[in-house]
Amino acid sequence: xxxxxxxxxxxxxxxxxxxxxxxxxxxxxxITIYAWGNSEVPVACDYVxxxxxxxxxxxxxxxxxxxxxxxxGRELSSPERLDYPDRERSAIRGTWRPPAKGTYTIVAxxxxxxxxxxxxxxxxxxxxxxxxxxxxxxxx
Length: 140
Known about the structure:
five-stranded antiparallel β-sheet, 1 helix, 14% helix, elongated
């Protein structure tokens, strides 16, 4: 009986630190991507060579934690970080030019939070004739 009581106490002691640990409160909110059309109006980033603007937005009290954005496993080149302390928000944005037709997976990560956006590049270079192929999926 005493051994069972000690075992239960020991098991409870292992659980206790996990329940007392502060929860991370940084979260990736969303990922957006668009290209500029001929009339300076945002259009779908769905053709080879498009000048695409990629942005991931984060929120929460730990908004300033490091964050990354990758496209098919490669970090977004020359990302710009924007912080909004009064709103507990931040963002990472950069430019990406799809090199070829195909499926590209954009992943934004901050702490343990992750969002994913799958983009289909279907249009020929400079034509922008592809379909709007944004298929969002995500997990946290």
